[in-house]
């Protein structure tokens, strides 16, 4: 579904990605993990067209997307839920969701507003509320719902649990598992390594802008030396 090959990108002359290659098959749930500054968010921004890669290729369903404007990439079905959510705070929840539909470009969505409210029941009672008045967790639900309104072929998520309470993070991850069970392809960037590897099927480890390990999520999660050396985190306790 999504194939990224030898992607090189950066900011202000600094190379943050040094030839990254990853792929996401149809219906697959894949994590990209790494320490802060490893290049994870740069990877997502280069895939989705927020920054222009220096070299390398990005293909969705065999169609080349690298170098195209971000709105063209979104309309192709590659939709990102950005770090920090970036909802429109002065618009209502309902208005934010309706704006997400602009990315459909003729595709039939799996989720309409009613379906999103079933996935995130907390949003139903807040439909007429300005989005900026909601909690961080509710705004994250809205950001995911807005992307789903665009009928994504692949959903890209950048740190969806960042700044959330453990309970809200549980709600978000539970929703992602449901989306995967319905066949949606998902690429997840997540600082909570252990949680990311619990819910995904495969994972890539990025260090200093390069993929240094990849494999089944269950195998990566039990590789204590990898978790400590590349991610700077303690292994999960039994």
Distance between the termini: 35 Å
- Tally of distinct domains: 1
Helix and strand string, N-terminal first?
EEEHEEHEHHHEHEHEEHH
Number of helices: 9
| CATH homology-level superfamily | P-loop containing nucleotide triphosphate hydrolases
How much strand? 25-35%
**Total number of strands:** 10
Domain ABC transporter: 2-233
Protein name: ABC transporter ATP-binding protein
Organism: Mesorhizobium zhangyense
Keywords: Amino-acid transport, ATP-binding, Nucleotide-binding, Transport
Characteristic terms for this protein:
globular; 238 residues; 9 helices; Rossmann fold; four-stranded antiparallel beta sheet
Topology:
Blueprint: E1 2-11, E2 14-24, E3 29-33, H1 40-48, E4 55-60, E5 63-64, H2 70-75, E6 78-81, H3 93-100, H4 113-119, H5 136-149, E7 154-158, H6 166-181, E8 185-189, H7 193-199, E9 202-207, E10 210-216, H8 217-221, H9 224-231
Parallel strand pairs: 3-8, 3-9, 6-7, 7-8
Antiparallel strand pairs: 1-2, 1-4, 4-5, 9-10
């Amino acid at each position: 579904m999504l194939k990224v090959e030898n992607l090189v990108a950066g900011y202000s002359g600094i190379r943050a990605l040094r030839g990254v290659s990853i792929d996401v098959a149809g219906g697959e749930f894949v994590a990209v993990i790494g320490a802060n500054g490893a290049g994870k968010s740069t990877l997502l921004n280069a895939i989705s067209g927020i920054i222009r890669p220096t070299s390398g290729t990005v293909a969705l369903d065999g169609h080349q997307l690298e170098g195209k404007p971000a709105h063209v990439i979104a309309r192709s079905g590659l939709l990102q839920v950005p770090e920090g959510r970036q909802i429109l705070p002065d618009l209502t929840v309902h208005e934010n969701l309706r704006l997400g539909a602009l990315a459909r470009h003729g595709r039939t969505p799996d989720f309409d507003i009613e379906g999103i409210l079933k996935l995130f029941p907390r949003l139903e009672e807040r439909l007429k509320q300005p989005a900026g008045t909601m909690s961080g967790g509710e705004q994250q639900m809205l950001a995911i719902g807005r992307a789903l309104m665009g009928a994504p072929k692949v959903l890209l998520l950048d740190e969806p649990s960042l700044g959330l309470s453990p309970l809200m993070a549980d709600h978000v991850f539970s929703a992602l598992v449901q989306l995967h069970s319905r066949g949606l392809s998902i690429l997840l960037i997540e600082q909570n390594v252990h949680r990311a590897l619990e819910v995904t099927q495969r994972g890539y480890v990025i260090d200093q802008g390069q993929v240094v390990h990849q494999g089944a999520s269950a195998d990566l999660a039990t590789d204590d030396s990898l978790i400590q050396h590349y991610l700077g985190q303690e292994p999960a306790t039994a």
